Amino acid sequence: MPVNTSGGLLSEGYHMGLTPLSEAVMQLMGRCEGRQLGPATGTKSPRIILCSDNGGVLQTHSCIILRR
Question: What pTM does this model have?
């Protein structure tokens, strides 16, 4: 099961909770080039993605389910 396909804080800036959401939308749209989920990476093409993130110092939490 692919997790954190964007690399998180190891590979890019963090925009207050939008990094996982933008990665999910890009995966669903097929715009992730080398890290795109699907046959090229030996995974299934994404149809449903769960995004989860904490805000502050574990003060808030949110989840969103995106579907193609």
Answer: 0.78
